[in-house]
Design a protein that fits this description.
membrane; 55% helix; mainly alpha; three-stranded antiparallel β-sheet; Integral membrane protein; 25 helices; transmembrane helix; five-stranded parallel β-sheet
Length: 776
């Protein structure tokens, strides 16, 4: 199995002639053409393994639609926070609280997205610009909305009702994208299993990844999709109601419209409460695949919200003589309320994570990233990224609409976006300064480590090789830079802490002054005023630059296959996990890949009474381990695992301790036939597994030498390449270790119980076609 970069079957099998064995264009298993019918010719493969390659790169970088996932970054990061909870006992009460808080935080991100779309379409376009003759001038596409035109659409309520189509299309697009990927990923059924036994069955070392329903999120994602779609539609409805309530209250003689508005508001509140109940009760059911269908009330919730939105649009468009739009759209302060509520949720999540971390206290907790606070830190970053994207779009759109005038100034044609967005933009330069300081400290660390490591590099090689100072520095520098991966928690912690402080300051400044930072500091000393204006202007451009960069990357990815593949790689780690918190996050490719691998291993070993070595590089090693966990215990003991460049402990074990912590990895090692892991100091992603088991079997093989040759010799006249994270097969140790694993499996089954794996005969008789072969 290849890693995040993706490798063709021809390269993995070392033969240009390959044949698809099972699968499709998205993910499939291949063999060399001459090995396609190996099971029919057992005599030709006595003692020889049959090699097979599983290619899954199209799950993450297959077509241009993947570029659209770039706008879903906040949702993906929030979903990661769900899986970063500390490794407390599964029955701990705080587990449910943690999961609920993350789901609620994810719901606020959907509301923020809908509010940002309403800000652009309803507030800046239909309310502010279309109602201002100076702003409409030169924009022919807005002429029919202008009050000077006197047309039917010139009434403020009708303009808003028409503009509401834009945010509704955004929500509809996210619903469609989630439904489309849901049918292709979450609906892949897991293989059937029967209870088995193994040489080791310690309950304390079980992990959720071994449960039958872990990779089957069909019902959960469907329920969350209904709830989030409803929340987005209700956000649009609330904006329309706020504008209508202001007009009805100002006139004083629209009693019927006022009463109708209050009734519609009550219906919106009722649907919002139902949405919260759905999110509250939507917890993962992992013990077994959840095949039940949702109740009619859950499935009908989005349609009910659409009907109510239609009624509110009619209510908003009802004739109100003399009404006009001025100032910002009512309800703009909701952005501050969303930010405060998100901050409260993050703080509650941090307290819950602290409680769980205390319950999970072990001797190996020192390796856990941020001592269990990784989830709250990442959740805060998800909120920050969501705020930057929404604020950046609003800021740039406002600049385009008002001809570049500074929003909030007296000469500006329109008031512009909410003041809070300007304060949040002003905080970005300070945040970048902190990141720059951390980057400088990281560079200093690289220099120090390189100098210390350089003295030891020549001792790793044959002393007869000619020493080379520049070569030594290059190797030592690679090792030092690879070590920065272990310092990632420091960067996340610093960024999160500063983001929390600056975010709180931005909300306080916006609420206390109700003016943008530049105008709020007009009476301050010149240095303070100049700094505030600079931060506001620079931050606005930085927010916009982030949005433009995402759009440019998406456009390039749609046109360029290589760029599309690169962007797909960025999602491989973030989209490994199921969509447990946010249904609009990019889909979980593992919900297709893991069942694929499990089906293939279980059915092959059953049909041919075989044993196999499954080898995986980088992210492929994580998929391999997850697939082995899904096997029944009997089949699992027929399997040996070979990982190389593996982030199982270095990334997943540290950031996701509840699922890849030392107890879980130790249990996996014990229940398999054997496991070997290859790693290098120069690898910035892979690392050792760090397992110590009482049976004495070693997992880690390394560190391997990289490069294989230090200097120029008669055997290696040219400098050898520093491989880092790639091409582990080039090291002779790879072939040696794989041969040892295959030999360990041997022609017979070592210590196997009498029970059969899934699909076997209930009386334990062997399957037809048994040949005793092993597959690599």
């Amino acid at each position: 199995m290849h890693g995040v970069g993706g490798t063709t079957a021809q390269d993995m099998l070392g033969d240009p002639r390959v044949q698809l064995i099972t699968g499709d264009d998205t993910a499939a298993c291949y063999r060399r053409t001459e090995d396609a019918d190996a099971e029919e010719r057992p005599g030709d493969y006595r003692g020889e393994p049959v090699r097979e390659a599983y290619c899954w790169s199209n799950l993450t970088s297959g077509n241009g639609a993947r570029a659209l996932w770039l706008i879903l970054v906040p949702f993906m990061v929030a979903n990661l926070a769900h899986w970063m909870r500390p490794a407390a006992p599964p029955d701990h009460r705080a587990q449910r609280i943690y999961d609920l808080l993350v789901r609620m935080l994810a719901l606020t991100l959907t509301v923020l997205l809908a509010a940002a779309a309403c800000e652009v379409a309803l507030d800046l376009t239909a309310w502010q610009c279309a109602g201002t003759p100076v702003c409409v001038a030169g924009k022919s596409w807005l002429g029919f909305l202008s009050p000077d035109n006197g047309g039917w659409w010139s009434a403020p309520g009708r303009r808003l009702a028409l503009a509401a189509v834009v945010p509704l299309l955004v929500i509809g697009f996210l619903w469609w994208l989630s439904h489309r990927t849901w049918s292709a990923y979450e609906s892949a059924s897991p293989p059937p299993r029967v209870p088995g036994s193994s040489r080791y069955t310690p309950d304390a070392e079980r992990t959720a990844l071994s449960l039958e329903g872990f990779w089957y999120g069909r019902r959960l994602v469907a329920r969350l999709r209904a709830a989030h779609t409803t929340a987005g539609v209700l956000t649009i409805a609330a904006v329309l109601l706020a504008a209508g309530a202001k007009a009805d209250g100002a006139g004083g003689h629209y009693s019927v419209l006022a009463v109708t508005g209050r009734a519609l508001t009550a219906v919106v509140i009722l649907l919002a409460a139902a949405t919260l109940v759905v999110v509250w009760r939507t917890a993962r059911s992992e013990a077994a695949p959840d095949e039940e269908s949702d109740r009619l009330v859950v499935r009908a919730l989005p349609y009910a919200a659409l009907v109510v939105l239609g009624l509110i649009a009619v209510h908003s468009g009802w004739a109100r003589p003399g009404s006009h739009s001025y100032g910002p759209l009512p309800g703009a302060a909701a952005f501050g309320g969303i930010a405060v509520f998100q901050g409260v949720l993050v703080l509650a999540l941090a307290v819950t994570a602290w409680v769980l971390q205390r319950a999970a206290a072990r001797d190996d907790d020192a390796r856990t990233a941020l001592r269990g606070m990784g989830g709250p830190a990442v959740a805060l970053l998800a909120c920050a990224v969501g705020g930057v994207l929404s604020g950046g779009v609003a800021q740039r759109f406002a600049d385009w609409m008002d001809g570049g005038a500074t929003p909030g100034q007296a000469h500006a044609p329109i008031p512009g976006p909410p003041v809070l967005l300007s304060w949040q933009a002003s905080a970005i330069p300070a945040l970048l300064v902190v990141c720059a300081v951390v980057a400088v400290l990281a560079a200093v660390r690289v220099l120090i480590v390189r100098r210390r490591v350089a003295a030891d590099v020549p001792g790793l090689y044959d002393p007869r090789e000619h020493p080379d100072h520049r070569r030594t520095r290059a190797i030592a520098g690679t090792i030092a830079r690879a070590g920065l991966t272990d310092a990632a928690p420091v960067l996340v912690a610093a960024t999160s802490a500063v983001t929390l402080v600056l975010g709180a300051g931005a909300v306080a400044g916006a609420w206390l002054t109700d003016r943008a930072p530049g105008r709020a500091t007009e009476g301050a000393p010149p240095v303070v005023h100049a700094a505030a204006e600079t931060a506001e202007s620079l931050g606005s451009w930085l927010m916009s630059a982030g949005v433009i960069l995402l759009l440019a990357m998406g456009r390039r990815a749609y046109r360029d296959h290589s760029a599309r593949r690169t962007i797909g790689i960025l999602w491989d780690v973030g989209t490994f996990w199921p969509r447990a918190a946010h249904p609009f996050a990019p889909p979980c490719y593992a919900e297709r890949a893991v069942p694929d691998l499990t089906w293939r291993m279980a059915t092959w070993t059953e049909r041919f009474d075989g044993r196999l070595v499954i080898s995986g590089h980088s992210q492929g090693s994580v998929l391999a381990a997850a697939a082995v966990w899904q096997l029944d215990l009997v089949t699992r003991s027929r399997v040996a695992l070979l990982t190389y460049g593996s982030p199982l402990e270095r990334l997943y074990g540290r950031w996701f301790p509840a699922f890849f912590g030392p107890p879980a990895l130790t249990g996996l090692h014990r229940e398999m036939d054997d496991w070997r892991n290859l790693w290098r100091f120069t690898d910035p992603i892979g690392g050792p597994i760090r397992l110590t088991c009482e049976d004495g079997r070693r997992v880690d093989q390394g560190p391997l030498r990289d490069p294989l040759a230090f200097g120029r010799t008669l055997r290696n006249p040219l400098p050898a390449q520093i491989l880092g994270h790639g091409d582990y097969q080039a090291d002779p140790v790879f072939d040696t270790v794989r041969a040892e694993l295959i030999a360990r499996l041997g022609p017979g089954l070592p210590g196997m119980p009498e029970q059969r794996p899934a699909g076997g005969h209930p009386d334990g008789r062997p399957a037809q076609g048994s040949s005793g072969r092993s597959s690599a």
